[in-house]
């Protein structure tokens, strides 16, 4: 076939798109069925008969027919489909790979599949699309088969197969089918998580679970599928019964609400005379009204019976009610007041006991307030998210650890730092907390290493910065060294200098050596006269080793003889024994 010659071939099955069935989101089901059917064909046709295998693949039009049996609009995940006995018996999951829909990621996935010992299929998911790509292991060359149940410009009439022997062409096809998300879309603040979802793919890699099942194996698969259907039907029946029971309870509650509404209306009609009496008593000058007003102004509890009788008489006089009806109205008013007070108390108690939720600004989930952390910046973060942030920064040895939300705010120049108390409360392990303590200590101290005892100990950072000489603080070590040059020096010894001039001057005074008075070159006399000549280039200085004075600076012999003769008229030219 031309495929084995390196040419790409596209096979389209008109009218076989997944959208022709009753389910419009069955691309995952079609891709998994493609992997199953192709796995069975590979077992039927050996790798030596690659041409027969390719012909069988390109003539197989019933791959997508399984979608006609799926009538739901619910999008099926690969993990859910793989648990069906039909696929669980025939396919074995070996790996899952995640990454962006770019050529580099697709190439790595296909190269990994080439390292497997048998043919393999990767089910690539980028919601809401799912496609499949199979590598058929051949004796001479491998063949890449891409299955797509969605109509595309290359195969607009239905599902399509793309076959070739080049991994570069396969990667190019996968990239064109599932291109990366638009960069402008990724930058939109309101669509960040949706855009990120479009910019990532998952690849579930499957290999064959063995040769196609015989009749006995197919019967076992049918039995397991039937049992699964029966379990689902039992669950549906249970949910139906529960729904009917809840509907009946809802009808009962609606009747109770209606009864309470009717009682409230009746109670309001009973209370109307009392409300009218209360409003009319403010302008009436009758003796009964005066009694009610006087009682409101401070009458004690003992006067309530007489007031009760007076109100009953007023009700009877004003509204033509008998004493029994007046008493019932007052009792109903008092009962209403008591119930109203009780209901208010219950509402306050319930409001106080209700759990308050908050939305975590990182995971966007609604959680109880008890699961939040207290930050000075007032950002609402759950304990799980802040713990993951703290642990990752501790592993990276980053200090101080800043609030993750503050770090994303462009104009926030002073992000809030995580406190040590929060690190203790959030629940890090002992190793991580030891790292935290070391980092926290490092902002106030410096690790000092002693070259003599070969030990290290933290010292105060401010004292270390101000000190010129460093002293080992360990009690059994008194080593002292210069911070600048790291050279040791002795207590009560000569003053230290990093270039050694101070120590050299001390040694020369101790040994009686002299400096050249012109260029300051150290000179040691090991014998002879006290007339010294500096050997430094271009110095030409002659001086006396006894008194250290400059005799002459010249290269002329006559000048030197005259100056030396003049100087040693008053100074010793030689040291004599015994003097």
From TrEMBL:
Q: Which residues form the signal peptide?
A: none
What InterPro entries does this protein map onto? Answer: E3_UB_ligase_RBR, Parkin-like_IBR, TRIAD_supradom, Znf_RING, Znf_RING/FYVE/PHD, Znf_RING_CS
Q: Which UniProt keywords apply?
A: Coiled coil, Metal-binding, Repeat, Transferase, Ubl conjugation pathway, Zinc, Zinc-finger
The residues forming a coiled coil are: 229-263
Q: In which pathway does it act?
A: Protein modification; protein ubiquitination
* Any one Gene Ontology molecular-function term assigned to this protein's record: zinc ion binding
Does this UniProt record's set of keywords contain NADP? no
Catalytic class of the enzyme: transferase
Q: Which domain of life is it from?
A: Eukaryota
Catalytic activity from the UniProt record: [E2 ubiquitin-conjugating enzyme]-S-ubiquitinyl-L-cysteine + [acceptor protein]-L-lysine = [E2 ubiquitin-conjugating enzyme]-L-cysteine + [acceptor protein]-N(6)-ubiquitinyl-L-lysine
Single biological process term from Gene Ontology: protein ubiquitination
- Where does the RING-type domain lie? 356-571, 360-406
The UniProt record lists the EC number as 2.3.2.31
PANTHER family in UniProt: RBR FAMILY RING FINGER AND IBR DOMAIN-CONTAINING (PTHR11685)
Q: What is this protein called?
A: RBR-type E3 ubiquitin transferase
List the source organism: Suillus placidus
